[in-house]
Design goal:
The protein folds into three domains: 7-106, Orthogonal Bundle (Fumarase C, Chain B, domain 1), CATH 1.10.275; 111-160 and 172-209 and 218-353, Fumarase/aspartase (Central domain) (Fumarase C, Chain A, domain 2), CATH 1.20.200.10; 363-454, Orthogonal Bundle (Ribonucleotide Reductase Protein R1, domain 1), CATH 1.10.40.30. The two termini are 47 Å apart. Helix content is 60%, strand content 4%. A two-stranded antiparallel sheet has the order 1-2. It has helices spanning 16-22, 25-28, 32-48, 54-73, 85-97, 110-146, 166-191, 210-216, 226-231, 234-260, 288-311, 326-348, 354-361, 368-377, 382-398, 408-412, 422-425, 428-433, 443-458, and strands spanning 151-156, 159-165, 268-269, 351-352. Helix 6 (110-146) runs antiparallel to helix 19 (443-458), helix 11 (288-311) runs antiparallel to helix 12 and helix 14 packs across helix 15 (382-398). With 460 residues, it is mainly alpha-helical. The protein contains 19 helices and four strands.
């Protein structure tokens, strides 16, 4: 292999340090599948348009298949002097079939080639991520169903607030991931359009059939402006942005898993298969997997900012700065896929500690709002009821009692509206059962939400 595709107008060779600095093959070789798929479609189009004969196209197709197999098996030799994946594949093609291999580049540029390769990569990655989100949601639903009757404290400001069903809490994350999945699906329509045929920036003089190419590559249309097509990276930025939201949601769940696994909370036991120990403290069991996902979230944020910063000052059309889009893209996709996969597995093996959760719902005056609601049902205004229950809590705290531990005489000191039936309102289970409004934590509502979630997962 040797010689630059663009070397005709240069008198001297490239400085070795500059050549190494300029090369992208050490990371863009990941695009070989997309590059070869696109080249095969392009050769079929050239034959259809009479630019190549059918026999010439068949020869090119067979050689491209051989090159694909070599790279897939790890038998292909990459050479930094050939810069990028496009050049490697073209040179390998020429080595196999001679000058005929040089005809494949007719009417196209590396600028519209890479734009297509990356769109195909983003499309394929998006499909994989959507499927992984479905698997993750399935793990959440399974965990919710397994613990459908468990009650836990709901929190605001990380302070115990009101009792909720654990299943309701878990389904909150299902809804977050549902929105993420919808965002990926919506972005596909803007990603899955064909830029090939835009040339370097101004289109091509050859009679190519872009609509044919679009159908061959299962794309949903063609780009409308050649200058925009080769300089656009919005589809990558959008994938990264959606991925930052997804990672934020995973990180929030991981934060809760980390807190819940502490001795101070003691709500869950993470499986040994998804935890590690300490090199010095024999008693330790560390939630490393959730911590890593929490940490990698910042990395994905950084990838987004990196590309936004790269793109913000670029004039039309292609600039070499845009080579910097690939590493953050690949890293984001890898991080999202691995995080979803490992966290799905972890969720399937979590054990919730029933006694710890029960004790937690019985302390902290979680039923205070229900006591206020009880008084409202007896004719008191809510604002007055809120103040009165606050006074009752102060009194109960002084006596080291929960509200339900106050006897009726003690309660009537605050209001004569209170009767024996108040104790039914102070039971955490009853508190939950009264919240069957749509979207609430009531058992019937949560049961319907679980059914709906399972139905959604089976929809395609």
């Amino acid at each position: 292999m040797g010689g630059k595709l663009w070397g005709g107008r240069f008198k001297t060779g490239t400085d070795k340090i500059a050549e190494s600095f300029n090369a992208s093959i050490h990371f863009d070789k990941r695009l070989f599948r997309e590059d070869i798929e696109a080249s095969m479609a392009y050769s079929r189009m050239l034959a259809k348009q009479g630019i190549l004969s059918k026999d010439e196209a068949a020869t090119i197709l067979n050689a491209l298949k051989e090159i694909y197999g070599e790279i897939e098996r790890g038998d292909f030799t990459f050479d930094e002097t050939l810069e990028d994946i496009h050049t490697h594949i073209e040179r390998a093609l020429i080595e196999r079939i001679g000058p005929l291999g040089e005809t494949l580049h007719t009417g196209r540029s590396r600028n519209d080639q890479i734009a297509l390769d990356e769109r195909l990569y983003v499309r394929n990655s998006t499909f994989r991520i959507i499927n992984l989100i479905r698997e993750f949601q399935s793990s959440l639903i399974g965990l919710a169903e397994k613990n459908h009757d468990l009650i836990m404290p709901g929190y605001t400001h990380l302070q115990r607030a009101q009792p909720v069903l654990l299943a309701h809490h878990l389904l909150a994350y299902y809804e977050m991931l549902k929105r993420d999945k919808e965002r990926y699906e919506e972005a596909l329509g803007r990603t899955n359009v064909l830029p090939l045929g835009s040339g370097a920036l101004a289109g091509t003089t050859f009679n190519i059939d872009r609509e044919f190419l679009s159908k061959e590559l299962k794309m949903e249309g063609i780009t409308a402006n050649s200058m925009d097509a080769v300089s656009d990276r919005d589809y990558i930025v959008e994938l990264m942005f959606i991925s930052t939201l997804l990672m934020m949601h995973l990180s929030r769940l991981c934060e809760e898993l980390i807190i819940w696994s502490t001795q101070e909370f003691d709500f869950i036991e993470i499986s040994d298969a998804f935890a590690t120990g300490s090199s010095i403290m024999p008693q330790k069991k560390n939630p490393d997997i959730p911590e890593l996902i929490r940490g990698k979230t910042g990395r994905v944020y950084g990838n987004l900012i990196s590309l936004l910063t790269t793109m913000k000052g670029l004039p039309l059309t292609y600039n070499k700065d845009m080579q910097e889009d690939k590493e953050p893209l690949f890293d984001t996709v890898d991080t999202v896929e691995r995080s979803l996969t490992v966290l799905s597995g972890l969720l399937k093996e979590i054990d919730f500690k029933r006694e710890s959760l029960k004790k937690a719902t019985e302390k902290g005056y979680l039923v205070a709002t229900d006591l206020a609601d009880y008084l409202v049902s007896r004719g008191m205004t809510f604002r007055k009821a809120h103040h009165l229950v606050g006074d009752m809590i102060l009194s109960a705290k002084e006596k080291r009692k929960e509200l339900r531990e106050l006897d009726l005489r003690e309660m009537k000191r605050f209001s004569t509206l209170i009767e024996d039936d108040v104790y039914e309102w102070l039971d955490p289970i009853s508190c939950i059962k009264r919240r069957n409004a749509s979207g609430g934590t009531g058992p019937e509502t949560v049961k319907k939400a679980l059914t709906k979630a399972k139905e959604e997962l089976h929809e395609r």
